Amino acid sequence: VGSGSAVSLSRQVQGTGGSSAVSKCSAAARGYIQDRFLRLLAGRRRRRAPLIHRGYYIRARAVYHCVQDFLLKTQSQPRTQILSLGAGFDSLYFRLKDVGLLHHTVIYEVDFPNVARQKAVLIKRTEELSALVGDSGGEGLGAIVFSGEDYKLLGADLSELSELERALEKAGLDNEIPTLFIAEVVLTYMENTRSDALIQWAAEHFPRACFLLYEQVHPGDPFGRVMQQHFSQLNSALRSLAQYPDCEAQQRRFLGKGWSECSVMDMNEFFTCCIPEDEQQRVQTLEPFDEYEEWHLKCSHYFVLAASKGMEPSWTPLLPSVTVPHHAGPVGMAGSVPAAVCARLSGIPGLRRYGHHSVLVKPNVILTTGGFGEEDGQHCRMRNFHVLSKHAGYWKAVCVTQNIPDKRWGERLYHTVSCLSDTLALVVGGRTSPSSAGLGMLWLKFPKTCNASDPDHIAVELVSLQPAAEAAALRWRHSVTETTFKGEQYLFVYGGRSALQPVLGDWYFLHTRELS
After folding, report:
1. I need a labelling partner for 19 at 20 to 30 A (CA). Which of 220, 403, 472, 503 fits?
2. Cα-atom radius of gyration of the chain, to the nearest Å?
3. What is the pTM of this model?
4. Whole-angstrom Cα distance, residue 277 to residue 275?
5. DSSP annotation string for 367-406
6. Can you name the CATH fold of 353-472?
7. What residues pair up with 380 in beta bridges, in sequence order?
8. Where is the signal peptide (predicted)?
9. Which residues does 329 contact at the CB level (< 8 Å), separation at least 6?
10. Contact by Cβ (8 Å): 70, 41
11. Is the separation of the CB atoms in 298 and 55 below 8 Å?
């Protein structure tokens, strides 16, 4: 790589640290993270989406969980140290100092010289930060840009191992005392040969050491491909994923580079097993949230790894602290239904969506409504209806644009559609945003000839509900089942959630003719 390209690349990677600080600051402002120092270090303020808040919450929680465990396990030691690699504008030192956990621990932070100098200026200018650090006058010695009695901030390139080693030695890093290395979405930006060398160097040069790694996994599925594309567009490619695509590969990586113990969890497992239930419930109450599919998908693509060697007692921060219920016996399976990808349909626009509802309106004709997906090259809530019909063994598809006078139809997710006759369907519930009330009911009326070859107009009419029936409709993520009782047609509406209740346990029999 030419020197100009290398400088450009380092600037892009530095930019990810600033963006991360802003996101953590936004999460702290909403109460996810208890950290009054983030706002002093983040610089600019920007409100992030609830899904982003949860991502940074689980990341911060995992790192702090492991760091706290290291400090508790080594509290009988006369001296310990923490080396944060690619620390950026992280506030870890200030949080630990503020709560009195650094009685005998020195924290070393390393990042690109430009980033380290910016952070040093921030600390000096901010009395609340500089008062905590104090000043031992060590800055200017080698790579040190700011120095306190228990805090050393260094500017160095992590990919230049010999340079890094000399800088740390001059700064006073002690190979003989218990040491925790932290790499929070850092090593993945480096060439694998260089990041592997750093992992091995840490194991070989520190007899009593722990390594905490937080990174991405699973590059091969659709979410993983989009994730890689996102970072590539930022000129910050995730380089470790090709060689270490999953948690098992990362575990083998560390065990093969000199670490004697290594445990790893993806963030779904960490959230379930290592975060107490009362804390999980606290997070649920912070702001309206309903993006559980994306949340679980994102958590499955990040992991936390804890490796150690020479530690007595053993450092095992990723042991489950929450009892997860298990089935007493083997789980019975009701059977399976064979399925195959409809290859001819994979490229049809309008089908890539979720949170939608598809219904068979007549033999070989499927109507799909709502959801979130791709429309006109954009990711958005879907406004148009989608009709699929089968003729002579082949599927045809078309999007039906609707001019709906009432906005209460548009763009709804997690609703149900029940076909009551060959010309009539009833839409129940659904939502736009998680903070909005449920969307009530709609009639969908279509002619008997409705198909994808000739998609006749589908009429949408708002249902005027009786007050007693409103509670049945103002919900989403519910289920609706068609049933008959004494010759009358009913819909059994059950469960789901609302803007006020995260889980609904009530149910209704909705009389379809009278909507009572």
Report:
1. 220
2. 28
3. 0.84
4. 6
5. EEE--EEEETTEEEE--SEEEEEEETTEEEEEEE----SS
6. Neuraminidase (2.120.10)
7. 373
8. none
9. none
10. no
11. yes
User: What are the residue boundaries of the structural domains of the chain, listed by start?
Assistant: 15-309, 353-472
**Residue 15: pLDDT over 60:** no
Cis peptide before 219 (omega within 30 of 0): no
Return the amino acid letter for 241: L
Which among 377, 375, 358, 443 has a CA at the least distance from the CA of 409? 443
Which residue type does 194 have? R
How many other C-beta atoms are found inside a 10 Å radius of the C-beta of residue 482?
13
- Structure confidence by residue, pLDDT tens digits, 27-48: 999 999 999 999 999 877 888 9
Among the CATH numbers 3.40.50.261, 3.40.50.970, 3.40.50.150, 3.75.10.10, which is that of 15-309?
3.40.50.150
Residues in the chain, total:
516
Judge if 15-309 and 353-472 fold alike in CATH terms. no
DSSP 8-state class, residue 190: S
Q: Tokens 């000129």 identify what position?
A: 235
Q: In what order do the strands lie in the sheet with 459-462?
A: 416-421, 424-428, 441-445, 459-462
- Whole-angstrom distance, CA of residue 322 vs CA of residue 309: 26
The residue type found at 321 is S
List C-alpha distances in Å: 267 to 63, 84, 315, 462: 11, 21, 19, 42
Residue closest to 83 by CA, chosen among 55, 66, 99, 105:
105
**Is the pLDDT assigned to residue 252 strictly greater than 80?**
yes
Please state the separation of Cα 422 from the chain's center in Å: 42
